[in-house]
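Quick start: what a row looks like.
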Amino acid sequence: MYVAFGKEKSVFSKDIVAIFDLDITSQSHLTRRFLREAEKAGNVENTAEDLPKSFVVCKQKEKNVVYLSQMATATLAKRLQ
């Protein structure tokens, strides 16, 4: 099954490692460092039309890819069911 994030981007549900609320998790220095390093490595894709509310970590081809999404974590979680 595919899960859509926005901007016509979707991934296989089996590739999703985790879904995080951006407002809550970005308060942690560890999360900020993770996102910064993922961006430096070119592994962040912004699929949000507006300000992102969440980010999804996916395992694709032996690397982690981070997708920024304007959808709430609850909405993305429902799409996985």
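That is the whole record. Residues 29-40 form the longest helix (12 residues). The chain is about 30% helix and 40% strand.
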